[in-house]
Amino acid sequence: MKKYSVVTQYVLLGLCLGLFILITPVKAQFAKGADVSWVTQMEASGKKFYNSSGTQQDLFTILSGKTINSIRLRVWVNPSGSWNNQADVIAKAKRAKAAGMRIMIDFHYSDTWADPANQAKPAAWTSYDFTTLMNTTYNYTYNVMTALKSAGITPTWVQVGNETNNGMLWNDGKASVNMKNFAWLVNCGYNAVKAVSSSTKVIVHLSNGYDNSLFRWMFDGLKANGASWDVIGMSLYPTTSNWSTLNSQCLTNMNDMVSRYGKEVMICEVGMDVTAASTCKSFLIDIMNKVKSVSGSKGLGVFYWEPECYNSWQGYGKGAFDTSGKPTVAMDAFSSISAREITEEPIDNQQSRTFVVYPNPAEDQLKITLPDDYKGGHCKIYNNAGEALISKKIEGKTSVIELTAIPAGLYIVKVNNGERTLSAKFIKK
């Protein structure tokens, strides 16, 4: 694991509170996705997969034939049996890349399942104080991302936490107890991802995508505490009787997230009872069309959770393969939806690199480091009301801003050189 000295801990705290990179629209395919994290474990147990004609094939080939173009993979820190650990994730990611698919990595920050009811720290992290926990979260995320990069994998998306309805890494990061801690942990993951791949989009993911009050509470809290994220992720698991209602509520919520926070949205998990394949197909077609209709073309895609699961593998009954290991009619929903290009907002135009402010939280001084290709500029510090409180000309790559004239609070620092603007959030203690 990559280690940082005590001297750099305050720099890491700064990294854990946000850096913004220039945004330029590009075109990308609508994500028709599947989380297939169980595939290697299923194969090791002797499970085989077959296409709709009954011919045995590699799972990724079958999914590609159903027009799946994106794969989601969960990663656990030190799991029992090694399934979903770093090496297992890299092996699956290589297969997805070879099949021409984009990749989402889903950090659970646990040794096992993380979900709304369970957000246990990895066993090795349980004794850490909060500063050490932040550093470890950053280092762990950085190391997994670096290992993926070394294997030729650059994820299109990364989730920092899984179904974090009440935060993660409990109890330190429990949102209902300390939203600020959760926001800082999100930023540790966010900035570790960006340090390795600035173009990768970072997702904060909650369950119950129809529950607007939950999403407003969480993202209002994250925003107020200086968190950074690129995409709002949702799960949606309706029944055969309420899917139409929940889909409509989910669309309302997605549009509200776009309007309220200006962020893109994505359905990171869906599923329905495997025995209701025809109804599931209708549900999938409807939710994909609704995501594509999100205002501003900010709906990025839909992922089915573990569709390859069959014969109640691990007791799960919401896969989309039948008892013989073939895709059900539900998977035909993806073929019926166009993957036409949509406008996305990348985080990096490949000209910017790192804009860092530290220490963060700061006391009397704030240090600013500009990207290598950014030549000087004028720096201003704004409060939440948009008032410019401090103004200073920046000559070199690194500069120090005196903060003694402003009170404690959350601020935005902006640097403009006449060509583009860089900005970051920081906290004055």
Features:
single chain; alpha/beta; 8-stranded parallel barrel; 10 helices; 17 strands; globular
What does this structure look like?
This protein is of the alpha/beta class. 29% of the residues lie in helices and 23% in strands. It has ten helices and 17 strands. The strands form four sheets. Strands 2-3-4-5-6-7-8-9 form an eight-stranded parallel beta barrel, surrounded by four helices. Strands 14-13-16-17 form a four-stranded antiparallel beta sheet, with no helix packed on it. Helix 4 (86-98) links the parallel strand 3 and strand 4 (102-107). Helix 5 packs parallel to helix 6, helix 7 packs parallel to helix 8 (243-261) and helix 8 (243-261) runs parallel beside helix 9. It is globular, with a radius of gyration of 22 Å. The model is unreliable at 5-11, 18-24 and 348-353 (pLDDT under 50).
Percent in strands: 15-25%
Radius of gyration: 22 Å
H-E order: HEEHHEHEHEHEHEHEHEHEEEEEEEE
Q: Largest beta sheet, briefly? A: 8 strands, parallel, barrel
The helix/strand class is alpha/beta
Which spans have pLDDT < 50 for at least 5 consecutive residues? 5-11, 18-24, 348-353
User: Main sheet: which strands, in order across?
Assistant: 2-3-4-5-6-7-8-9
Instruction: Tell how many strands the DSSP assignment holds.
Output: 17
Distance between the termini: 31 Å
Give the % helix.
Answer: 25-40%
Number of helices, where a helix is a run of at least 4 consecutive DSSP H or I residues: 10
What gross morphology would you assign?
globular
Mean pLDDT: 90
